[in-house]
Amino acid sequence: MDKVKVITIFGTRPEAIKMAPLVKELQKKKQIDTKVCVTAQHREMLDQVLELFDVKPDFDLNIMKTKQSLTGITTRVLEGLEEIFEKEKPDLILVHGDTTTTFAGALAAFYQKIKVGHVEAGLRTYDKYFPFPEEMNRKLTGAVADMHFAPTLGSKTNLLKEGVDEKSIFVTGNTVIDAMEFTVDSEYVFKNDELNNIDYNNKKVIMVTAHRRENWGQGIENICSALKSIVEQNNDVELVYLVHLNPVVKNVVYKILGNVERIHLLTPLDTKETHNLMNKCYMVMTDSGGLQEEAPHLGKPVLVLRDVTERPEAVKAGTVRLVGTDINVIVKEANELIKNCEEYDNMSKAINPYGDGKASQRIVTSILKYFKIKSDEN
Any idea where the UDP-N-acetylglucosamine 2-epimerase domain is (predicted)? Predict the structure, then answer.
């Protein structure tokens, strides 16, 4: 074989952010015939990332529907990919992380005996319902994957415990660090004037996201009550909450925080705006997975508004701290970082365990070696 055919599949904004630099790296290699398929599990937010990275899909399943169910997403992806795979006959498909697109894409490939590469493989909480459905999407994808691109040694260890052949595991770092080389600009000017008018030099600006379904209801209420207390107790704090559009989240957030001074409630930003807000802020509070990797790269401490994380390396490294959704715990931990310079410095200067921005290069090199194809450098 002197050329390998690879189809990269993704469907949501977080996947697109992490797969875009890999797509770019694949496109550099004349030994790789690469195509991109998007499922558009999330339409608008996905399109923003495609435009930012100038990625033009070869196939677009456009599956998103109002109030879509996990079952609906899965079946539409399976049916859409079946036709593409039968026509294209790729040697390898690449999926990322833990979405329903990821699992369905891997399963569709398995049904046609196409090899599967799993980017960001091996993350685990060992609780199949937390995060839901992501934990099982990862495990089920791993069960059919032929190449496991683990971001850390810890992820590799998880896979080895599950009986995965060590020869099929490649420790690469996380491609999100690669992506940030494209997006962060120290002189960045926001499209949103409300963000431009914040005094990042003299205020301790906290960036917040919280919307995971595990936190719906009491969890989001507790988080909002804690955020209100933090701002009221610290005159030098300003808070920017990027509020998810889902009414289950949005209605609660606006009810509790809508009229609180020094709290800015904004709709979710595009990737470049988000990364540059993160770069300018003091710290991050989130229940997101990806921000646990991105913020430490910029030296920003992260308080995770969850009880468990599939990214324990960050906790061990000291860049991330789990605080859950208890109001008193959230307020206590936030105040510690706001008031205690030593604690803040310890977290902000800890080494990010997620890599050096060369994960995509390592993945491409591993693919060429796996298929016994000489690279450009050879």
Answer: 24-367
- Expressed as residue numbers, the domain containing 147 is 4-176+356-371
Domain shared by 208 and 334, yes or no = yes
List, for residues 124-166, the tens digit of each pLDDT value.
999 999 888 999 999 999 999 999 999 999 999 999 999 999 9
Cα Rg of the chain, angstroms: 21
**SS3 call for 22:** helix
pLDDT at 377 over 70: no
d(CA 293, CA 302): 9
Q: What is the pLDDT of residues 258-283, one digit of tens each?
A: 999 999 999 999 889 999 999 999 99
The tally of domains found in the chain comes to: 2
* Exposure string for 95-131, b = 16+ CB within 10 A, e = fewer: bbbbbbbbbbbbbbbbeeebbbbbbbbbbbbeeeebb
- Cα–Cα distance between 50 and 319 in angstroms, integer? 29
The residues annotated as belonging to the active site are 98, 120, 134, 211, 213, 244
Report the distance separating Cα 367 and Cα 188, nearest Å.
36
Q: Are residues 199 and 300 in the same domain?
A: yes
Amino acid at 183: T
Residue 324 and residue 306 in contact, taking contact as beta carbons nearer than 8 Å = yes
Question: What is the residue type of 240?
Answer: V
82 CB-near residues (< 8 Å, 6+ apart): 108, 111, 112
Q: Measure CA 279 to chain center.
A: 17
Q: Which residues contact 266 (CB under 8 A, 6 or more apart)?
A: 192, 194, 195, 240, 241, 242, 243
Helix (H, G, I), strand (E, B) or coil at 313: helix
Same structural domain for residues 121 and 199?
A: no
∠ CA 141-146-149 to the nearest 5 degrees? Answer: 75
Q: Tell me, yes or no, whether 181 lies in a domain.
A: no
Amino acid at 206: I
List for the chain the helix, strand, coil content (%; round to 5): 45, 15, 35
pLDDT the model gives residue 256: 97
Q: Are 241 and 194 in contact (CB under 8 A)?
A: no
Q: Which residues contact 368 (CB under 8 A, 6 or more apart)?
A: 4, 29, 31, 32, 374, 375
